[in-house]
Design brief:
binds zinc ion
Length: about 350
């Protein structure tokens, strides 16, 4: 009986390998995969979006006039691997890079693109450029300083000794950052966007229309989406993140309206800022529903006189936790760390209630 499951497991593995090959799934950098998701449309993404370093998706759009890249990864080495892969796919240069927002998991790779394609335009919202100027140098310096003092191996060894599962997961994610970024940051220049806009830019590149658009505040002040009307494909940046949304300092009330505008696009393909490609609005609507539930639960708690310090005990979003995180300890950690704790604070602030100092 002990080995009875083996042939079945092998069968599944074979089916999986065939399925992967059929969809052109390729590994061009360890821990990531390169997938075609439409005609001339490619996604390079972490295999596990919850593992460290937490990194963005990067989308490659091939047009007859050149290549567009949306978001450039946290690690310039990964961006260089994507550039090598672009050169295998087409002889055309990268002409445009879009930074959907300022967070460095979407912008650190800009340097690799500037080096490889000096003429490429880097597009972002004006609020993104302002935030990059304000935040990016300090963020880079902080990472360099923190990572200089540690080795990834030490952190992983320490994680193995921890009894608290959440804490151990946090350590492992951190080790991923150290391993990926420590060798890269000293040689990385901060390359800022040089084509900045407010509301909308429309392009015709060969046979393709591309619209870069600001649809409202959400994850940050300056999130932009890329809409390909002919493909009905929408690239959302971190306005939408799967499987667990990020809610750090998010203007929650505005964010709900922005998601409604995304849903109204009628996209058939949605590429979130992190996580798997969606083929309909279902996940987007699930996130919008979560945000609505969070805002109304926080408003209700406040009405009942609950102070901010007791908010997490008073708000019950466990049915949503089950829907988003399921039974995965890793996803539950992400739910608490990236959504619930920062999200309650964001909702409280978005409703105009005073935060304690
Ligand atoms: Zn991100």
């Amino acid at each position: 009986m002990k080995n009875a499951g083996a042939p079945i497991r092998f069968g599944w593995l074979l089916a999986l390998l065939i399925a992967v090959a059929a969809y052109g799934d390729e590994v061009i950098y360890p821990g990531y995969r390169w997938v075609s998701f439409g005609d001339g449309l490619f996604l390079h993404s972490p295999v596990n979006p919850l593992a460290g370093p937490v990194d963005s998706n990067s989308v490659v759009i091939v047009t007859a006039d050149g290549v567009w890249v949306v978001d450039t990864h946290i690690n310039p080495a990964v961006a260089r691997a994507v550039i090598d892969q672009i050169r295998r796919v087409t002889d055309l240069p990268v002409t445009h890079v879009v930074n959907t927002h300022w967070h460095d998991d979407h912008t650190n790779g800009n340097h690799a693109y500037r080096q490889a394609f000096p003429d490429a335009k880097i597009i972002a919202h004006s609020a993104t450029l302002a935030a990059l100027r304000r935040e990016w140098p300090a963020m880079k310096a902080q990472r360099q300083q923190a990572y200089a003092a540690v080795e990834a191996g030490q952190i992983l060894a320490a994680a193995d000794k921890l009894e608290d599962e959440d804490q151990a997961l946090g350590y492992r994610i951190y080790a991923g950052y150290v391993a990926a970024l420590k060798p890269e940051l000293s040689g990385m220049e901060l390359i800022y966007p040089d084509m900045v806009f407010e509301d909308k830019l429309e392009f015709e590149a060969g046979d393709r229309r591309l619209i870069v658009e600001w649809l409202g505040r959400g994850n940050t002040d300056g999130d932009v989406v890329v809409w390909l009307p002919d493909d009905k494909a929408l690239i959302t940046g971190d306005l939408l993140v799967a499987p667990i949304p990020y809610a750090f300092d998010s203007p929650m009330v505005d964010w709900i309206e922005t998601l409604d505008r995304l849903a109204a696009k009628g996209a058939q393909t949605i590429v979130p800022g992190h996580g798997a490609v969606q083929r309909d609005n279902a996940y987007l609507e699930q996130v919008a529903s979560l945000l609505r539930a969070t805002v109304s639960a926080v408003a209700e708690a406040r009405k009942n006189g609950i102070p901010f310090s007791e908010l997490s005990g008073a708000v019950d979003l466990s049915s949503y936790e089950q829907r988003f995180a399921g039974d995965s300890a890793e996803a539950a950690y992400a739910w608490r760390t990236y959504y619930l704790t920062p999200g309650l604070k964001s909702a409280w602030a978005a409703l105009g209630f005073p935060l304690p100092d």
